[in-house]
Fold this protein.
Amino acid sequence: MKRPGNGRFTGCVAACAIAALLAGGAALALPSGYARAAETVPAEQSPEAAIRTRIEAMLPAPWRIESLMVEPLSKASAQTPEPQATARVTAKLVLGAPTYLVDSREGPVTFLRPAADAGLAKTWIATALATRGPDGWTVTLTPQTPDLLDGIGKPAAELPGRTVVLGTAEARSLREQLDRDAVQRLADDTERRRREEERLAQQTAAAKAEAARAETERRAVEARIAQLADLRGKLAGNDRAARLAAFEAALGGNDPALRQTAMEAALQSRDPVVANLALKDWIARRRAVPVQLYATKEDPSSEVVVQNLGPMTLEIDGFSPVNGALAGKLGAPGYSIARPSSIVGALAQTELAVNSFGCALTLRLTEHRTLDGLLRCQTLPTLIARITLD
């Protein structure tokens, strides 16, 4: 038998080595990248079957290998310490199911665009380099078509959400429903914003109204304070004509606060004319005036008389602001001498004098806004009397 030549032998060795190494453990990277053999060749498996199994295991679904071919490109050198050989690996790939690309996402729905139909064929080509080293053969693959499977998409089952293919009746129905939902959401959002804007406008208007009310109230308070201060200033001034005019204006109006302020200032005034006007106004507005009685230290029996007399009242039936003449009744229920009886009296400046049957009441204005004096009855001890100008 004749031994084959070195060229044919080394070429066979290289091709067989590459095939064996590929079958044993060449890690193929599709569609791009490099891979190295890492395992020994199983003796029971043919090189072509092993290569096919490895490539199919690493192909993305639903691609499959229809044919596979390994062609030697160079011969290994016997003189080289680390002999090398190269081969061309050609795999024909066929798409087993249609693939799709994501067109859009609408909530849980994913709309798909068809990318490729089933049966699409692609040819994947790589260069295999086998190198023998101290630990055995190592094979690397360099793809010649790294972008071969780019843009092909994926099967619908591998894409997220509820997948629907554009152009189908289901897609049209879902799109219409999604459009209706979007319109409704827009209407709901518009209504919600309208309500929020209306509520905000109401709150703003209420805040402005409250601020305006508070400002008006503040100004009214300031004006009132200024008015009262002005009245007090005029009543306390040195100009008698101004004092009288201010007092008469306050008493002649319908403002209770101004009237009260004028009364307080006039009763505490040292001007007898203004004080007399205040007392006349005070008496003219009353029909019954309580008179408080107190015992004197000089007469010990006056305490018993005060207790037995009971409440004393000055009833006013008529009063003349012009001359201060007073008519009415004065009395207390405890003693016959002091029981209610008709009186005649008069207000002169700041003194009030009242006379009834058997009794006389004389009072003078004090700085404490009271009329203080004495009650004298014929058969009773003298008592201290007071009328409080409230």
